[in-house]
Amino acid sequence: MTEPMPTYAQLPITTDAPPGSSWGVWDDDGALGCLNLLTPERVLRAQSIPEAGRVHNLNLELELPSPPLFGRAAFEHVVSNLGSGVGHDDELHHWNTQSSSQWDGFRHIRHPRYGFYNGRPDEEHGIHLWAQRGIVGRAVLADVGRWRSSVDRPLRPGSTDAIEPEDLLATLEAQGVAVELGDILLIRTGWLAWYRSLDDAGRRAQADRSSPACGLRAGTAMAATLWDLHIAAVAADNPALEVWPPPLFTGPRLDPETATPEDLIGGFLHLSLLPLLGLPIGELFDFDGLAADCEERGRYDCLFTSAPLNVHAGVASPPNALAIT
C-alpha cells in the first residue's frame, strides 16, 4: 500500500491510470480496492469498541422493498416437503441480489471510458473475493437525517434532496466522531424509515425506475470528500447512496469519449466510487436501530461485520451485516 495514503488531488499515482483513480495504490491484484485498508491490526483494534454487547442487524427483510425498486424482479420463496414429515427445504426463484440490502461489487458498474476497476476484465471481479476475506472493522455512523433536522433543514426522502459534502462533514463534527483510516462509513438519511411509513400505493410508486430519492450529491467534490476520509467502504439506507435519479440519467446525454471526467462523475457518482476509486457501495442498509443506540450512548462508532455471499464472480450481495456496540 502507498504510504501515506494519497489525497484525491494527488490521484492517480501512476501516469497510466485514469484521472481520479486509485489504480496502483495497493500492491494486490486489483480486486479489493479500499477493502485493503481493513488490515489485521485495524480488525483487532475494532474489537475493543463494544461496551454493552448490543447486536444490531443492519439487513432489511429480503422481501423489502416491495415491489423491488428499479424494475428488479420479485423473488418467489418455495418451501418443499422432504417427505414423511421429516422437514423442509426452501428455494428462492428469480432472486436478484440487489433487490434488498446490498453491496455493489466492482463488477456492477463499468466506467464508459476506462472499464472496470483497475482495468480488470469484469469476469475477474467477483463478490467471492470480498467474501473470502470478510468485511470487518470499525464503522462510524453519520446520522445525516437527524443532523439536517436539528438545523431546520430536514431531508425530504422522496425527492432529489441532495446531501452536500459539507452536510456529511458537519454531521460527523456535530456527533463528535472522528473518521479513522480504514473505517466503514455508514450514512443514515432516514429514507428507509420514511419508506416503511408508506402505504401499498406509495410503495408501488417508489418501484418506478424514475421515482426520486434523496442521497449524496454527485460530483468530484463528494468523491474527493469520501476518498480523503480514507474509508474502506461506504453504505447508506437509501436506494442508491447518491441522489436518484442521477443527473446523467435525466440531463443531456453525454458522450463518454468527449465528456470531461468531472462531467461524468457529476452525472453519476457510482462512476467514480466503483470503477475508479475501488470504494465498495452499500445500499438499503437498515440503520434505524443502530442510530437510536448511538444517540442514547452519545457514541457513533461500532464493531462492524459483513459476510457477503461466496458466489464466484458475483456482481452483488446482501451484506449479512451486524453492528456491535
Mean pLDDT reading: 96
Query: How many domains make up the coordinates?
Result: 1
Basic shape:
globular
CATH C-level class: Alpha Beta
* CATH topology title: Glucose Oxidase, domain 1
Indicate the structural class. Answer: alpha/beta
Number of helices: 11
The N- and C-terminal alpha carbons lie at a distance of 30 Å
CATH superfamily: Putative cyclase
Identify low-pLDDT runs: none
- What is the β-strand count? 13
Question: What spatial order of strands do you see in the largest sheet?
Answer: 1-13-11-5-7-9-10-4-12
Sheet-strand content, in percent, reads: 15-25%
**Range of helix content:** 10-25%
| Largest sheet, strands/sense/barrel | 9 strands, mixed
Which architecture name does CATH use? 3-Layer(bba) Sandwich
Series of H and E elements: HEEEEHEHEHEHHEHEHHHEHEEE
- The whole-angstrom Rg is 19 Å
